[in-house]
Amino acid sequence: MELTLSRQIDAPLDKVWDIVGPNYTSAGDWASSVYVSGARSGTPKVTGAPAAGHVCETSLGPFTETIEAYDEARHMVSYSATGEKMPGFMKGLRNTWHLTPSGTGTKASMTLKADITFPMNILMGWMMKMQFKEALTETIDDLKVYAETGRASPRKVKVDASKKATAARQAMT
User: Fold this and answer.
1) What is the Cα–Cα distance from 111 to 113, expressed in whole angstroms?
2) Which among 115, 116, 70, 73 is positioned nearest to 97, based on CA atoms?
3) Which of 95, 140, 157, 165 could form a disulfide with 35 if both were Cys (CB 3.0 to 4.6 A apart)?
4) Are 13 and 101 spatial neighbours (Cβ–Cβ below 8 Å)?
């Protein structure tokens, strides 16, 4: 299954790239689905990547991400994700950010690829696609607010005040 969402962001390309590229490990600062995040230990697989990946506590549980591709010149970062609560029929999950100049701002595109085994891809694929679309929409909208204002979105502020997010931050420090 593949799903791509794009948004026009009224912020310069370099500013948006700084958030998703060099500061990739800080997604917990702006993405409402990420309660807390930090750099994953280890040597990056990809030359030029800011870290090997990141670990994060999310609304779907803990995840470990590995940067699989990083191209500063093309403003692209791609990472695979594994999580303790990922169902066994989910064989792979990869997300790619790609930024391009657009007028005085930036077009941000986010592509999620999920490898779901047969027959679950048929039985549950449509439902999972709806859930992924909601999560991606929230994330790209959170990025838009953060890049344009320098502040977390109202949704992120609300999530950060929750007991689950507070507990996740305490557990990760």
Assistant:
1) 7
2) 70
3) 165
4) yes
Residue 66 DSSP class = E
Angle at 137 between CA 71 and CA 153, to 5 degrees: 90
pLDDT per residue as tens digits for the range 83-116: 887 877 888 899 999 999 999 999 999 999 988 8
Eight-state DSSP code of residue 5: E
pTM for the full model?
0.93
Q: Give Cα 47 distance to the centre of its chain.
A: 20
**Number of other residues whose CB lies within 10 A of the CB of residue 134:** 11
Is residue 62 within 8 Å of 43, Cβ to Cβ? no
Q: How many CB atoms lie within 10 A of CB 64?
A: 16
Question: What residue has token string 């007991």?
Answer: 163
Side-chain-side CA neighbours of 113 within 13 Å: the count stands at 7
pLDDT at 173: 67
* Residue pair 67/81 in contact by the 8 Å Cβ criterion: no
